[in-house]
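thread: overnight batch results

M.L. [08:02]
morning all. the overnight job finished for the chain we discussed friday. pasting input first so we're all looking at the same thing
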Amino acid sequence: MNAFEINKIIAAVILAVLLFFGVGKLTDFIFYVEKPKEPAYTVEAPAVKVASTQTASSGNTDVGKLLSLGTVKHGEKVFKKCIACHTIAKGGKNKIGPAIFGILGKKSGSVSNYKYSKALLAHGKTWGFEEINAFLTKPQAYIKGTKMAFGGISNEKDRASVILFMNSKSDNPLPTP
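M.L. [08:03]
and the structure it wrote out:
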């Protein structure tokens, strides 16, 4: 192949690149559309209810009424979501989350040999029915900065059942209200 052939190939590549980018720029110039300064219409976002988390954290939830919705047997089924990260057997080992046998009635962040987040250690409250209900509703919203990445249990029957099941897994279960 001589130098003239190589020059033709290089010129064809350069022309193709120029056409590829140039046609786009040329069409942008010819068909320029000015964007409006204000939108033609606005979409109203629906109001989001966050009542269960707010009432649970403010103490306005009737825990006795909530717990009457659930059963220990149903809680055992729903708790299977939690088994990936927690053990509930007596003497169980910590997993991604701490072992939670007998957690109700204990101070938060008190399971030995588990490295808690600073937020949960600073929380420092005792896990009662109101506390665990608020936490299980949406952990990240209730204790900001917790390591627990679980989205929460929004269904009240499921949450009540899990609380009753967790309470039953204790040497000294708390009396239900």
